[in-house]
Amino acid sequence: MNEAFHGVPDVLAYLAGTWRVERTARDVAGHAEGHFTGTTVFTWDGAGLLHHESGTFTWRGTARPAERTLRFLPGDDPATAHVTFADGRPFHDLVLRTGRHTADHPCALDLYRGEFEVYDERRWRMRWRVAGPAKDLILTTAYTRQASSAARQA
């Protein structure tokens, strides 16, 4: 996408609510491609946002249910967040002050490099390039806000 980026002054307030998710997973070396379709719900839990994603992942013609949970905790200022796995292990930081951010996450011998781009109040994209001896993937996820999900719940 060649669009202008939309700065986000408060990451957690921006993300709160329900988002439609469309993801492609491309195995660069094996030339296979999968697709995930589902929903991500960001809910307030007192400390930050609980991110729960659920849907269907189709890989090589086989569709399976898939889900994951992350936590988005307040960063040093409202435009930032610390993202952790559900068990509390660090994943990456997120800074959306300018509407664009790059983050790295080493995982064993592989490196995940994420690019985050916010286009407006209703659309953002995340792209992870995963490279190393175990994986050679590109994961691209488009998020679209569901109607009436922007309200912050304390």
What characteristics describe this protein?
154 residues, mainly beta, 10-stranded antiparallel sheet, 1 helix, globular, disordered C terminus
Question: Care to describe what's here?
Answer:
- With 154 residues, this protein is mainly beta.
- It has one domain (11-144): Calycin beta-barrel core domain (Lipocalin).
- It is 3% helix and 64% strand.
- It has one helix and ten strands.
- It is globular and about 40 Å long.
- It starts with 10 loop residues before the first helix and ends in a 9-residue tail after the last strand.
- Mean pLDDT is 93; it is low at 149-154.
Write the layout of secondary structure elements.
Elements: H1 11-15, E1 17-27, E2 32-44, E3 49-59, E4 62-74, E5 80-85, E6 90-95, E7 100-107, E8 110-120, E9 123-131, E10 136-145
Antiparallel strand pairs: 1-2, 1-10, 2-3, 3-4, 4-5, 5-6, 7-8, 8-9, 9-10
InterPro entries: DUF6314
Organism: Streptomyces durmitorensis
Protein name: DUF6314 family protein
Q: How would you sum up this structure in a few lines?
A:
By secondary structure, the chain is mainly beta. The chain has one helix at residues 11-15, and strands at residues 17-27, 32-44, 49-59, 62-74, 80-85, 90-95, 100-107, 110-120, 123-131, 136-145.
Fraction in beta strands: over 45%
Give the strand order, joined by hyphens, for the main sheet.
Answer: 6-5-4-3-2-1-10-9-8-7
How many individual helices?
Answer: 1
Mean pLDDT: 93
Overall shape: it is globular
CATH homologous superfamily caption: Calycin beta-barrel core domain
SSE class: mainly beta
CATH structural architecture: Beta Barrel
The Rg value, from CA coordinates, equals: 15 Å
The number of distinct β-strands equals: 10
In helices, the fraction of residues equals under 10%
The major β-sheet equals: 10 strands, antiparallel
What is the first-to-last residue Cα distance? 34 Å
Counting structural domains, the number is: 1
CATH class: Mainly Beta
H/E element order: HEEEEEEEEEE
Stretches where pLDDT is under 50 for at least 5 consecutive residues are 149-154
